[in-house]
Amino acid sequence: MPPKKGLSASDKRDRMLEIFHDSADVFVIKDVEKLSIKKGIISQAVKDVLQSLIDDDLVHCEKIGISNYYWAFPSEASVKIETEVKKYETELANTKRRRKEMEVAITQHKAANPSTERRAEALSALNALKERMAKVQSELAAYRESDSETVEAMRDAAAGAKCAANRWLDNTYTLLSWCKKRFVGHEIELAKFFAENGLDEKTDYIE
């Protein structure tokens, strides 16, 4: 035979609340524990169940002297239930009203924006433009985040390369001048040789 199943938390609350409603009396904790055990609630759970009822304002607690007194009258429970029912009825009415307003708004929107092929193409083009714009903005942000020191170093390197190129060109012209003086009568051969290696009358310094 399977073991007897214990009471659920909800069952414990309901049974303890019956203790107060059936008697309409005021109790101390010992009375609540004694009557709860008779209702099938184990003694170790009494205080937790009682506290949950107090937290939900279903049972009242008042300290007088050194003792706490507990009570809950049936009339209070009915008033509380009626108040909650009215609250939920109001919320339901407001929800129905908002739903009706949304249905009207959706109908109006569909009427003002019919789903045509042209509109679908326009929306597709718009989405493509948004994606392109996001990509361009991302690239722009990457350029903005470029390291200024790196850019400056690149500029310095370019300037140094230009100076070196002009210096080597100057050295080459000096060498050509020396060769012409050293090998008089071979100017044509010298010019051809240097032209084949990238130096002719059009070669100029880098500005």
From TrEMBL:
<protein>
    <recommendedName>
        <fullName>Meiotic nuclear division protein 1 homolog</fullName>
    </recommendedName>
</protein>
<dbReference type="InterPro" id="IPR005647">
    <property type="entry name" value="Mnd1"/>
</dbReference>
<feature type="domain" description="Leucine zipper with capping helix">
    <location>
        <begin position="149"/>
        <end position="206"/>
    </location>
</feature>
<keyword id="KW-0539">Nucleus</keyword>
<dbReference type="InterPro" id="IPR040453">
    <property type="entry name" value="Mnd1_HTH"/>
</dbReference>
<feature type="coiled-coil region">
    <location>
        <begin position="78"/>
        <end position="146"/>
    </location>
</feature>
<comment type="similarity">
    <text>Belongs to the MND1 family.</text>
</comment>
<keyword id="KW-0175">Coiled coil</keyword>
<feature type="domain" description="Mnd1 HTH">
    <location>
        <begin position="16"/>
        <end position="74"/>
    </location>
</feature>
<dbReference type="Pfam" id="PF18517">
    <property type="entry name" value="LZ3wCH"/>
</dbReference>
<dbReference type="InterPro" id="IPR040661">
    <property type="entry name" value="LZ3wCH"/>
</dbReference>
<dbReference type="Pfam" id="PF03962">
    <property type="entry name" value="Mnd1"/>
</dbReference>
<comment type="function">
    <text>Required for proper homologous chromosome pairing and efficient cross-over and intragenic recombination during meiosis.</text>
</comment>
